[in-house]
Amino acid sequence: MSRQVALVTGSSRGIGLAAAIALAKQGFAIAVNGPEADAELQAALDRVRDLGVPAVAAAFDVSTIDAHEAQLSAIEYQLGPLTTLVNNAGVGVIQRGDLLEVSEESYDRCMEVNTKAMFFLSQAFAKRLLARDRDANAFHSIVNVTSSNASAVAAPRAEYCASKAAAAMVSKTFAVRLGPENIAVYDVQPGLIATEMTAPVIDSYEQRAKDGLTLFPRVGQPEDMGNIIASLASGKLPYTTGQVISADAGMLVPRF
Asked: DSSP string spanning 194-221?
């Protein structure tokens, strides 16, 4: 079997970088993505390359839809045919607060990055796979990283919740469309994860986790999510597609 090749969006840090590292440990060639060719992206690329797999920097803003085709072509030219897309890139709200005060700018930003970009990058990736003969021994998949807020309301971040709920439905629709083509689609929904995005509030959530908000009394780490993503992308859950993986330590389990 030829080497699996993955594009991991938003992989210069946080969950995306952890996913890139976990996939590299599984032997995947990796396209490391960030919006700019900066020092952070280079540092992430170096960490992946240190694991002994082919890796390239793919510096582009996922919300620039008309750049997708050229970027995918450039990745394949350098690494070979893509087998895997991890849609991890995402943004939070511009400002937390009363949803009655949410700006159109913040709403559109969440939708453009968290939902629209994921939809159209998945579309471009899927068309590319369907247009060629694929290695029957390779596992082809799209792994989307959405959020527990796809279903759990956080009113001070209403526009983010709306974008993630839409992204979760995008995952389902692609799973239905691509299942007959033997391309798996998953929706990983992280709960309380210690990343740069959650840094301003993670200490309070750490205490709430210890107090019982989550069934495991701790917040999650990017490496937890990375290992989940790598397991899915390497076919370790065979005969599955369209699943939501609630990576939230049981936070959303109904309880009395």
From this structure: -STTTTTTHHHHHHHHHTTSSSSSS-B-
The CATH class of the 5-247 domain is alpha beta
Here the tokens at position 36 are: 């700019």
Q: What is the mean pLDDT of the chain?
A: 96
Contacts of 179 (CB under 8 A, 6+ apart): 185, 241, 242
Residue 188 corresponds to which tokens in the numbers above?
A: 């990983």
DSSP character string of 108-119? HHHIIIIIIHHH
Closest CA to 186 of 120, 248, 234, 154: 234
**245, 186 in Cβ contact below 8 A?**
yes
Check residue 255 and report its DSSP letter.
Answer: -
pLDDT for the residue 1 = 65
Query: Looking at the predicted structure, is the pLDDT value of residue 116 above 80?
Result: yes
**pLDDT value, residue 200:** 78
Neighbours of 53 (CB within 10 A): 20
Radius of gyration of the chain (CA): 18
The pTM assigned to this predicted structure is 0.97
pLDDT at res. 167? 98
Name the nearest CA neighbour of 110 among 152, 60, 166.
166
Please report, for the chain, the start and end positions of each structural domain, with discontinuous segments joined by +. 5-247
In the numeric block, which tokens belong to residue 71?
Answer: 């970027």
**pLDDT, position 232:** 98
Strands of 68-194, DSSP E: 84-87, 140-145, 183-190
Spatial separation of the C-alpha atoms in residues 190 and 167, rounded to whole Å: 13
